[in-house]
């Protein structure tokens, strides 16, 4: 699995801790920005999460010019076009995204339109299309899972053509990611669980896929350790700010890891299941992770065995025979999923979701084979292989 050549890139400034939000005005002024547009969704606003952001900006003498709070769970080119229109009419000069993956992806896409001009977002889809830096852009994540605050990708639905447009460019990366535990204290248990497992999957796939490298490994293993040590603590005590911060940091670390080393079959199956059955991404990650690890087992035995140290701790690692550590790591992931099921009924099988029909498995498998993530899976995947994994995940 060793790489003779690799690249590692993460120019995002990370501002983390219990007063991170208060640094936003300083960061804006440092880039010569004074008229930010804040992009978020109804859920974030209803949870009262905008107040600390607005107060921090106000105390720092920074006025938020306007707020767009109607980003849907699956954002579209229409939404992006509407927000870009507001940005222009209000003469804004910067963007602050407050929310989960959808709000952040939407803000990235808005930044493309307001920086490049025009209303046709599809013209910028693909990789390497953008050639110039975009407007000042800051991200305040409110979930500890997606890692979108440190990734150079965005996905936006074109509802007229019924396709999802991918955007990839280092220019999409925010100028800073603001990681503040105040933003995740009110996350409901099932979202805490699903996003925690999303981050765990990012880190695990980053550590076992074909493009892994020593630097992404360091971020991935640190993320796994933080998640395994803190996810159940937060489930038991949702107001535990220290553990909430640990999970938020783990999400960012896992995002840095997988954006440099890529992901694999878990993501390919998850993207396909999300598109066909409309299941949340984090849930799909949690659901498929152990089944894909079992499929890849003989190809990833060494790194997966090493991951047991971070997943279960030094005592379990030391007392497990070297040739059983990979299986024990999968077992530890299954135990974590069982504990989350006890806490909030986070589904462990496709059957437990109640949203998937058995006759959809073939279509999910076919769509997954066309997903870009599958290129970096450590073991070749045929249609029959993908179907076999889906049948095991059925229940």
From TrEMBL:
Sorted alphabetically, the keyword list is: NAD, Oxidoreductase
Name all Fe-containing alcohol dehydrogenase-like C-terminal domain ranges. Answer: 192-394
Which cofactor names does the annotation list?
Fe cation
Q: Which PROSITE patterns match?
A: ADH_IRON_1, ADH_IRON_2
| Domain Alcohol dehydrogenase iron-type/glycerol dehydrogenase GldA: residue ranges | 11-181
Pfam families from the UniProt entry: ADH_Fe_C, Fe-ADH
Taxonomy, superkingdom: Bacteria
Q: Which InterPro entries does its entry note?
A: ADH_Fe/GldA, ADH_Fe_C, ADH_Fe_CS, Alcohol_dehydrogenase_Fe
Similarity-based family = Belongs to the iron-containing alcohol dehydrogenase family.
Cite the PANTHER family for this sequence: ALCOHOL DEHYDROGENASE (PTHR11496), ALCOHOL DEHYDROGENASE 4 (PTHR11496:SF102)
Q: What is this protein called?
A: Iron-containing alcohol dehydrogenase
Q: What is the lineage of its organism?
A: Bacteria, Pseudomonadati, Pseudomonadota, Gammaproteobacteria, Pseudomonadales
